């Protein structure tokens, strides 16, 4: 069957091993000085390892692969590692919005008579994401995992940012952020808040230059930020945008860039994603001046 799965560029891989802890399923191993995908079966395709690769050697692709089997992964890999590994795996599934896999894991633990280590620790991390999708966001320590890549949905029941009440939206200080994370290397393209949304892909500097960034650009949109000049792994960015277009089925992409020449690379990334994607979505380009003024806006 065809599905999303990790692929590794051997030429770019330095064998640093930073990706290994990001794969609790055990699908990655260091062999002969390179990171290798040792089991299609164990790779869930969520891409948690990608954000840990400093050279951009890893990306998600859609290809023929053995179907991922969460219960078999639990039996042959996760449970053998003990309670700490089980807890880390459950948090991994929760943080990436993989509700179905998470439920399979919990069903396996129940059937095998194995205690859920998160429940024993008094944590709520084992609750499927859809059950708490519109709950107020948690802050501070959340029981493990990297806070920078934990998927959090800030939308209220009406789809607005939870902090953006009608009164608050009248002030320049209100936040229109609907999710976390926002950096393109860290986001999961299949996170629930991207589904059917209007995406704002913003160059890093735009939020600092545009004084009304939240009100004029971000309001009503999901967000991903990137720097085409300083970031590595542009292929990863393209693959994530393709997944957002084809699988999350986003409605539109608004690309906000600065007037400086290097920012144009963000449009190139979007153009390449459009070429690879099966669906077509409208793209709007907004150019911000270095003093924060809007210099241009057009559909491309």
Q: Give the topology string: H per helix, E per strand.
A: EEEEHHHHEEEHHEHEHEE
What's the helix count? 8
**CATH structural architecture of the largest domain:** 3-Layer(aba) Sandwich
CATH class of the largest domain: Alpha Beta
Which fold name corresponds to the CATH topology of the largest domain?
Dna Topoisomerase Vi A Subunit, Chain: A, domain 2
Biggest sheet, strands in spatial order? 8-7-9-10-11
Largest sheet, if any? 5 strands, mixed
Structural class: alpha/beta
Number of strands: 11
State the end-to-end CA separation. 35 Å
Number of domains: 3
Helix content: 25-40%
- Uncertain runs are 124-145
GO molecular function, one term: metal ion binding
Region (Disordered): 133-172
Pfam families: Fer4_10
Biased composition (Low complexity): 161-172
Which tags fit this structure?
3 domains; Alpha-Beta Plaits; 8 helices; 5-stranded mixed sheet; alpha/beta; 25% helix; Dna Topoisomerase Vi A Subunit, Chain: A, domain 2; 11 strands; 300 residues
Topology:
Layout: E1 2-8, E2 28-31, E3 34-37, E4 58-64, H1 70-78, H2 83-95, H3 99-112, H4 117-120, E5 152-153, E6 179-180, E7 198-203, H5 206-209, H6 213-218, E8 222-226, H7 234-246, E9 252-258, H8 265-276, E10 283-288, E11 294-299
């Amino acid at each position: 069957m065809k599905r999303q799965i990790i692929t590794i560029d051997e030429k770019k891989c330095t064998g640093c091993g930073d990706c290994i802890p990001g794969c609790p399923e055990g699908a990655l191993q260091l062999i002969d000085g390179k990171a290798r995908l040792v089991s299609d079966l164990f790779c869930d395709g969520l891409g948690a390892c990608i954000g840990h690769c400093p050279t951009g050697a890893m990306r998600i692709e859609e290809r023929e692969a053995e179907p991922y089997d969460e219960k078999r992964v639990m039996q042959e890999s996760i449970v053998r590692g003990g309670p700490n590994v089980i807890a880390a795996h459950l948090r991994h599934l929760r943080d990436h919005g993989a509700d179905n896999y998470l439920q399979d894991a919990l069903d396996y633990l129940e059937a095998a008579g194995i205690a859920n280590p998160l429940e024993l620790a008094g944590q709520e991390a084992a609750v499927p994401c859809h059950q708490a999708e519109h709950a107020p966001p948690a802050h501070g320590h959340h029981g493990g995992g990297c806070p920078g890549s934990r998927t959090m949905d800030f939308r209220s029941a009406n789809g607005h940012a939870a902090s953006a009440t009608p009164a608050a939206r009248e002030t320049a200080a209100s936040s229109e952020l609907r999710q976390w994370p926002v950096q393109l290397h860290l986001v999961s393209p299949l996170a629930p808040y991207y589904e059917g949304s209007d995406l704002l892909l913003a160059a890093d500097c735009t939020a600092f230059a545009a004084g009304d960034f939240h009100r004029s650009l971000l309001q009503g949109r999901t967000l991903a930020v990137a720097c085409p000049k300083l970031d590595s792994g542009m292929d990863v960015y393209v693959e994530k945008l393709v997944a957002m277009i084809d699988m999350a089925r986003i409605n539109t992409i608004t690309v906000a860039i600065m007037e400086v020449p290097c920012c144009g690379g963000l449009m190139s990334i979007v153009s390449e994603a459009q070429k690879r994607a099966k669906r077509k979505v409208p793209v709007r380009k907004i150019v911000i001046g270095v003093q924060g003024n809007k210099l241009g806006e057009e559909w491309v």
